[in-house]
Amino acid sequence: MFTDMVGYSALMQKNEDLALNLLKEHREILRLIFPNHNGNEIETAGDSFFVEFNSALDAAKCAIEIQKTMNERNQWVPSERKILLRIGLHAGDVVHTDKHVHGDGVNLAARLEPLASPGCICVSEDVARQVQQKIDYPVLKVGKRKLKNIQLPMNVYKIVLPWEKKESESFIPFSKESFKKHRSVIVFVIILLLAAAGFFIFNDISNTSAEEPSNRIAVLPFDNISQDSEDDYFAEGITEEIISNLAKISGLDVIARTSIIKYKNSDLNISQIGSELNVGTILEGSVRKISNTARITVQLIDVPTQKHLWSEAYDRELKDIFAIQSDIAKKVADGLKVQLLANEKEQIEKVGTENTDAYRYYLLGNYSLNRRTGVSLVKGIEYFNKAIEYDPEFALAYSGLSNCYTLIGGAAYGDISRDEASRKAKDAVLKALELDETLAEAHASLGYIKFRFDWDWDGAEEEFKKAIKLKPGYAQAHEWYSLFLSLIRKSDEQALKEMKRAYELDPLSPSISTGVGRILHFAGRLDESVAQCKKTLEMYPNYAEAHFALAMAYAAKRNIDDALNELDKAIELSQGRFVMITIRGMIYGFAGRKKEALAVIEELKKLSNPEPVSPWSIANIYLAVKDMDKYFEYINKAFEQKDALMVYFRTTPVLQPSIKDDPRFHQLIVKMGIEK
């Protein structure tokens, strides 16, 4: 808890005796209240306190009692003797070192406090979730706010006290239900920050509106009301295709599929979903499929007013499905008064196929592709090939086929070799572009292939830019382009900008949320990387990649115990992913445990038998034990084999800074064509 009395510095200049007198009284009042709520005073500095609490409820009750006490006191004193405080509450991890307390909880509380008005209480989402309906005053949502040095906007709430003005009525009520799926598995230490900030602090906060613009839209999963539950793939496919069409419209911000799929069969209402996704408009609907016909109903809803802006029912044959999707996209744009550019209208009106069997297998292929497992990707390949059999001119099917092979080759899903997967991925994507050179998904996939497999850096960047131009709302393209900019171009700020754009379009994607942390890591901003990975894990505690990214950040900071702890979780959750076991050897090396580090190489040889161990894996363990000759021997072998993980080579100094002084490091960067 930090306390800074409002206007204290100015009062010191004007009347030092009065300021010191009020400071003393302020301390006496607060020190009487802290013990009532199990508050532990950590430090006192000038006119500030720093106090910690064992629970959010204790902290909230303490804050309320302080403000009530100060409000009652201020009724009986002249205006110049009033003491006003701002209060901010945040729940987060803290670390005790000697007599000091550090951690993300402290940092976030410090940034949260200035949002409170004098005499009021501002709280984070974590606190709001824990105290709602347990205190005597309502908790209302203020909205998303961008805080200084905090990478992503945060939801901010306030405890509304009796003396606050009517302006609070315009805030959005906090909904307990919206947090049911995000329960934390860690024990929080609660930081209560009471502080008054000078006007300059307000410049750190972006004045974002509590209401999101109407052109930020979410398409909820369409309900399958067919008699056959196996037609779920069809309803999901229609949803995804409508999202894809809307994402082509530059005047719309369309939430990606990965962020809306959680609302399938959800009992949350429109207001709650709109609040979670920060959207102003929602499109919902249902699908009934009977043989080769479909009935599709849609409603466009304004979130703040719950008003239906437009609704329609379509009864068509399946061969007309693209026309239905096109009509929906155009009417959404019209309903939201968004102007369609000529090229956007042309893209939306394109017909993928008129063959109903090809379209059915295409939807089944996408359904399997989105499951992202080795088995589902192989099934996806089967379905996309069936779609192509029925319609060899169906460009979208080739694009989906390419995506399956790209994931298998680039992320080690399935049993197909990397070389075979990359070759088939490229053949499929080039065929897709031969049939339709305006397919954004295909350009993004080709960019990724040129980036990860071909090392055609200029060609990769050109393809990513084409994809984003053709489909501005395509989150995947922004995510891939961000990684490329960070690893190859070393354009840290531009990379972060692209990843943040992907996050805006897909705010509930664990991959993109983790991606923000990775980009911060590659930029050497390790504390921010740790904070972002922790934020991801609060939402997705079982997401292996977030634990892995956090382990890597800790390793770079040489927080060995934390790194190994997170890595063990990642290995368990990923069922022993090879690259994660490699990093365990690297961390042992950083810890000076050379024997254990080299033993991991032998473990990797057994696991990869009969195939040889990737030279990239062996190289990085030698890097950690500082055997630089062995490191460059193996990293050059990885270069000769065009190992997919070599794209991370340029970021090596973040993990081992001394490598920058070795001329062999720069020589290899030049050989890779990253620098001249």
Query: Which strands sit side by side, in order, in the main sheet?
Result: 1-2-10-3-6-8-7-9
CATH topology name of the domain at 8-204, in short, is Alpha-Beta Plaits
Largest sheet: 8 strands, mixed
Q: Residue share in helices?
A: 40-55%
Query: Which ranges are low-confidence, i.e. pLDDT below 50, for 5 or more consecutive residues?
Result: 165-211
**End-to-end C-alpha gap:** 52 Å
CATH architecture classification name of the domain at 8-204: 2-Layer Sandwich
Please tell me what the overall shape is.
globular
Could you tell me the number of beta strands? Answer: 16
Query: Strand fraction band?
Result: 5-15%
Radius of gyration: 28 Å
* Class from secondary-structure proportions: alpha+beta
CATH class of the domain at 8-204: Alpha Beta
Q: Let me know the CATH homologous superfamily of the domain at 8-204.
A: Nucleotide cyclase, GGDEF domain
Number of alpha- plus pi-helical segments: 28
What's the average pLDDT? 83
Short description:
The protein is α+β, with helices and mostly antiparallel strands. The protein has 28 helices and 16 strands.
Question: What are its keywords?
Answer:
alpha+beta, 28 helices, Rossmann fold, six-stranded mixed sheet, Alpha-Beta Plaits, 676 residues, eight-stranded mixed sheet
Please tell me about this protein's structure.
By secondary structure, the chain is α+β, with helices and mostly antiparallel strands. Among the domains are: 8-204, Alpha-Beta Plaits, CATH 3.30.70.1230; 216-351, Rossmann fold (3-Layer(aba) Sandwich), CATH 3.40.50.10070; 577-676, no CATH class. It is built from 28 helices and 16 strands. The strands form 3 sheets. It has an 8-stranded mixed beta sheet with strand order 1-2-10-3-6-8-7-9, with helices on both faces. Strands 11, 12, 13, 14, 15 and 16 form a 6-stranded mixed beta sheet that branches. Helix 11 packs antiparallel against helix 12, helix 14 packs antiparallel against helix 15 and helix 23 runs parallel beside helix 25. The two termini are 52 Å apart.
